[in-house]
Write a structure and sequence with these properties.
Layout (H helix, E strand, L loop, with lengths): L1 H9 L1 H72 L6 H13 L4 E8 L4 E4 L14 H7 L10 E3 L13 E7 L5
Antiparallel strand pairs: 1-2, 1-4, 3-4
Helix pairs in contact: 2-3
């Protein structure tokens, strides 16, 4: 048996077989290493792409809410102009709010109420869906003395204070389209 092994070890075919097996194992090993590096690179590239998209989405969201904030500032100016008598009729105020609402693709409606929830002005081209919003959660939070819990899409006018004085306070509100955010 040892004689057969020695003959086999000296034969060129055996040497070729050993070298072939070594090269095949080396190829499989190198392919596995390359596959692992490609896999890790694909994960890193995916993370980088996801972060880039997240940054773009964050910038878009900031711009969207800055636009809504600008809409609220303009609504406040319209409200102040209405209080000072610049608009002769409530319909003129509503028309100004309607024009303001049309400048933003995410704003559905803008308007304000008195402290009891009665709608004083709105941007609808028809009668508003509710003429009194006193039962709405975003309205009740404001008048329950919890100024820190401001719901999404609603805020108190910057020039007014959250009080229970029904004759002084007014509430500004903007309704937004969630699919446009």
């Amino acid at each position: 048996m040892q004689e057969a092994e020695q003959k086999l070890a000296r034969s060129p075919a055996f040497l070729q077989a050993v070298l072939g097996a070594f090269f095949a194992a080396s190829i499989v090993l190198l392919f596995s290493v390359d596959l692992q590096f490609r896999y890790q690179d694909a994960i890193a590239q995916g993370k980088k792409t996801a972060l880039n998209f997240a940054k773009i989405l964050a910038e878009h969201t900031v711009l969207t809410f800055e636009g809504v904030e600008q809409t609220l500032r303009e609504a406040e100016k319209i409200r102040q102009d209405g209080l000072s008598g610049r608009y002769a009729k409530p319909e003129d105020t509503n028309a100004a709010l309607r024009l303001l609402q049309q400048t933003s693709p995410v704003v559905v409606a803008v308007g304000w109420t008195d402290a009891s929830g009665e709608v004083l002005a709105h941007s609808y081209d028809h009668k508003p869906p509710r003429t009194n919003i006193s039962g709405m959660p975003h309205f009740n939070v404001r008048w329950a003395g919890q100024p820190k819990r401001t719901p999404k899409g609603a805020r108190l006018s910057e020039s007014e204070h959250c009080t229970n004085d029904q004759h002084k306070a007014e509430f500004e509100s903007v309704s937004m389209k969630p699919d446009k955010l």
